[in-house]
Amino acid sequence: MKKIKLHWQILIAIILAFIFGQITGTEMSIAGVSFYAVYDFIGTLFLNALQMIIVPLIMSSIICGVANLGGRGDLGRLGGMTLGYYAMTSTLAILVGLLVVNILAPGIIDGAPAGDRLNLSTDDGALASTVASIEGRGGADIIAIFLRMIPSNVISAAAEGQMLGLIFFSLVFGFFMTQIPNRQGEVLLNFWQGISETMMRITMWVMRFAPFGVFGLVAATIAETGFAAFQPMLMFFITVLIALGLHMVVVLPLLLKYIGGVSPVAHYRAMAPAILTAFSTSSSSATLPLTMECVEKNAGVSEKTTSFVLPLGATVNMDGTALYECVAALFLAQAYGLDLTFTTQFTVVLIALLTSIGVAGIPAASLVAITVILTAIGLPIEAIGLLLVTDRILDMCRTAVNVFSDSCGAVIIAKRLGEPGVLESSPQSYTGSSLAADD
Question: Which CATH number goes with the domain that contains 287?
Answer without folding.
Answer: 1.10.3860.10
